Amino acid sequence: MKEQSIGFLDSGLGGLSVVKEVKKLLPRENIEYFADNQRQPYGEKNQDELTDYTLQIISFFIKKKIKICVIACNTATAASLKKAREFFSIPIIGVIRPAVQDAIKKTSNKRIGVIATEFTTKNEAYPKEIKRIAPKIKVFSNFCPEFVSIVEAGKFTAPKTYEVARKYLKPLKDSQIDTLILGCTHYSFLKRAISDIMGSGVILVDPSVSTSLTLKEVIIQKGILKEEGKGEENYYTTGSPEKVEKTAKIILNGDNFKIQKVKLEELEQNI
């Protein structure tokens, strides 16, 4: 089982932020990554749709013999983590709880901001989890619909990106938060722009970092750490492999992989 892969799923390329961190922490592990580009943005879908998508992709991974799965998408975590854990016997990790625990440790003034997709914001996944652990903390949220398409296009620091980010971040700056959760794995790639706008007085909490640390803990705890050999990687998308590959190579700083196309019909047969 140690030789089996870790599965990562996302609506697109945001989850590669988690993969990037995991590759630093667990360089020997085999990776299976699924980007559901054809059905994005996930933030505009309803809970039933998101749950179906998640279960379909994890079922696809099960056929690839993964040993653990990371729902590397805040929206899919908010919508379907509980159901996925009921449905499958392998360990499944989401990105929300690790980020919340990290943010609670880091805030000094007990004012935490969250930027996320429309679904995650309206679902109140982050405020609920924060209040469950630390009821006295005040939470301020805003959704940022254009951020996902900006990241998918690889425009991490373009002037337009700064313009859009200023608009989304203004209410949070006005709320005098000292900690900001990047509540969508896509947003990890906009850290420079977000940090520039929010200023040095605001700590950014990146779920990619928090989740990778949690993943390592679980893998060691379960006794399934791959200790020998070189890690192998496979990448899949329901969208255009050429478009996905172009941005993925920028994110992962490499060109030694190919993106494989998966048809929606193949996924939908899994559930």
Give a concise summary:
The protein has 271 residues and is of the alpha/beta class. The chain has helices at 16-25, 47-63, 74-87, 96-106, 118-123, 125-133, 146-152, 159-174, 191-198, 207-222, 241-252, 264-268; strands spanning 5-10, 31-35, 66-71, 92-93, 111-116, 138-143, 179-183, 203-205, 233-237, 259-261. It is built from twelve helices and ten strands.
Question: Can you walk me through this structure?
Answer:
Helices cover 48% and strands 17% of the residues. By secondary structure, it is an alpha/beta fold. The protein folds into two domains: 5-94 and 209-268, 3-Layer(aba) Sandwich (Rossmann fold), CATH 3.40.50; 96-207, Rossmann fold (3-Layer(aba) Sandwich), CATH 3.40.50. A six-stranded parallel beta sheet has the order 4-3-1-2-9-10, with helices on both faces. The chain has a four-stranded parallel beta sheet with strand order 6-5-7-8, with helices on both faces. Helix 1 links the parallel strand 1 and strand 2 (31-35). Helix 2 crosses helix 3 (74-87), helix 4 packs across helix 6 (125-133) and helix 4 (96-106) packs across helix 10 (207-222). The longest helix has 17 residues, at 47-63.
Radius of gyration from CA coordinates? 18 Å
Q: What is the number of strand segments?
A: 10
Q: Quickly give the structural class.
A: alpha/beta
For the largest beta-sheet, the strand count, sense and barrel status come to: 6 strands, parallel
CATH level 1 name of the largest domain = Alpha Beta
What general form does the structure show?
A: globular
Strand content: 15-25%
Biggest sheet strand line-up: 4-3-1-2-9-10
**Strand/helix succession:** EHEHEHEHEHHEHHEHEHEHEH
Report low-confidence residues grouped into runs of 5 or more.
none
Give the overall pLDDT as a whole number: 94
- The assigned CATH architecture of the largest domain is 3-Layer(aba) Sandwich
Provide the helix percentage.
Answer: 40-55%
Could you name the CATH topology of the largest domain? Answer: Rossmann fold
End-to-end gap: 24 Å
- Number of individual domains: 2
Number of helices: 12
